[in-house]
Each structure stands twice: as structure tokens, then as C-alpha cells.
Amino acid sequence: MRREEVRMAEEPLRLVQFTKSFHIGGTEVQVVELLRGLPPSYRVQLAVLQDQGPLMDSVLRLGFAPEVFPLNGSLARPNSALQALRLAQWLRAQRVELVHAHDFYSTMLVVPAAKLAGTKVIVGRLDLAHWHGKTRRALLRSLTWMADHVVGNAEAIRRMLVEEEGLPAERVSVIPNGLDLVRFDARMHEGLKAPLPDTRGAPVVVHVANMNHPVKRQEDLLRALAMVRLKGHALHAFLVGDGPRRPELERLAGSLGLTDTVHFLGHRADVPAVYARADIGVLCSTAEGLSNAVMEGMAAGLPMVVTRVGGNPELVADGVRGLVVPPLRPQAMSEAFGVLLADREMGRRMGAEARAFVERELSLERLVRRHDVLYRRVARGG
């Protein structure tokens, strides 16, 4: 090995994690876990577009003071180019070897800046680009092509990148999300932070998702619950999450006669404890990457009913760790609920299999180890 290679191998790898903000979301949670878990052989720095969000407290407690590169509005404004130049100068000054951009907006800034600075760059593609219009998707594809490597969190995303966007397969890695089970279990056993509605012993299904975008399809869950009710089953639902669509969803629940059994809980800081008081978990999206909500329901030992989109079937093996149904089919979802309500022991077996899968395949240790191997390979060819 040459002297320069020996020196590089001994020095901490200078890495920047770059994300939009630290509002609560699957991507942001995974960034926090990487900040917490990467070994001392890294010199990790953090950069953001906005130093905001409930998870900022966790970031600060870990000792990270993020460098901020604010977009202040539209990507089309001159400020975006100014911030890209600032970022390129900062990357050079900090002698950064590798920067990992975790989301769409970060990618828009990071890839051009990294190329100007001569810094290696990894782009995270963690969804199916379902919320982008044609122009944005074309821009994202172009910048993804410019990256040194791309990380998806599900095989469904890898297939999209290779088959639809034409990326060479060797430039795409799949690293599933990880869950810190020790912390998850501790939160589950801490108990509730606020009371839950009294369901009088009736079974409960939990849905955890924002109410910002129709892709989450809470309306399909509501219609499925109405069908379950017509068949004479008592099934309550806890809808965790909030957003601009909540009022219309509440009106739909009322029109379906579900106001006594469907409970809108808003944002909750005690999701693991809520899951622990349920019998079934559900996600009815029309597009997903690898859902943290599904992973957490599985970690809580729940049988999950999920739609056959994105990474959902990779997490929930149909008939083994839960039930998989077609998207946009409330009737199929209601039938899945009926199966689990009719055979509670089968549901418990599926929940146990789900928990075992998370322990085996989706641990935080595996998440960190896989990123560690990839970072070293991309940055130093190791």
C-alpha cells in the first residue's frame, strides 16, 4: 500500500450528512440514527437547509451543530445558486471526502456543490418519486445520474432506478431502514403520554401517517371500516397523524357513521405505546418506499395489513407477517381485517413473525454497518 493510502486509511473519514430539516419523518429519523451510530473512525458533520423540527433536540444532544444552507423558497431563485457555491466552498474548507444527501431538496443543492468541490456524493432515493411532477422528476433523475452512488431503502426503489431511470445496477445499493429496538421497546414500555379513547375492550387497528397528501389513502381505511361494521364486527381505529386533509377525512368518517369508532389522535410522541395497545396495524398507501410506520408496527408485534406497493411486500410477507392487499381496494382491506378478527391466534403468530423479522433484518446495527461499508467503498475505494 502506498504511503498516501496508508495515511488516508488511518485518518477519520470526513463525512457530511445533509438533510432538509429535522421535522418528524422516516428520513429524518434514519439520519439521527446514523449520527448516533457511526463509529469514531468518522469525522461526521451535519448540514441542513433548515435547522428546525422536533428532532433537533436529539441532534443537539448528540453534539452536532448543523451548518445551515437556507434555500428561502423556490429552488428557481438566485439564492439556490448562491447556497450551492457557499456549500462547495465549505466542503473544500472542511476537506470533506463524502457527502450523503438524504432527500429531494438536499440533492438539488448538494450534487452541484459536491461536483464543484471535487467531493464524492451519495444520493438517497427513499421513495418512488410519486409526489414529483414531470419537471421535478426529470431534474431529480439528472442529478441522481451525476452522483457517485445512490442508496435506496427497498428493492422496489432499486428496480425503479435501474429499469425506469436507466441507472447502472452497480451504482445502486439497497440499505433497508433500521430500527433501534432497545429505544423502541423502552418507549413502548414507558406508557402513554396522553390518554387514548375508551374502546370498551373492542379490537383496535392503528394507522400512522401524515394527512398531507392523498397518497396515504386514509379514506380507503375509513371505507373498509364501514364495510367491517356492516358485517357486524366491532373494530375501532386510531388514526395517528395530522395535516391539511384531516378535516375532510373527519367529515368522511362522519358520513360513514364511524364517529364512535374512528378516533383522530393527531400527532403523538408515544407511537410505540399506542401500537402496544392495538391488535392490528395498517398502511393503505398507493406508493411507499420502506415505511417506518410499518416497521414500528411490526416491532410492536402486530400483524400488519398493507397495500401491495413499494417496499410494503418486502416487509410484510403475505400470510406470514401480515396480509397484503391491492391498493385502492377497501373491500379487500375489509376482508383482511375480517380474517384477523376471526382468527386472533393467527394474528398473534403473524405479529411474532413480524417482530422476529425486524430483530433479524432491520436492526440499527445492520443499518450502520451497511452504510459504513458503502461510505468507505465510495470515498476511498475500500
TrEMBL record:
The keyword Disulfide bond is assigned to this record: no
Ranges where the Glycosyltransferase subfamily 4-like N-terminal domain occurs: 24-182
Transmembrane residue ranges: none
Keywords: Glycosyltransferase, Transferase
GO molecular function, one term: glycosyltransferase activity
Keyword hit for Disulfide bond: no
Database matches in InterPro entries: Glyco_trans_4-like_N (IPR028098)
EC number: 2.4.-.-
SUPFAM superfamilies given in the database record: UDP-Glycosyltransferase/glycogen phosphorylase (SSF53756)
Protein name as annotated: Glycosyltransferase
Organism: Archangium lansingense
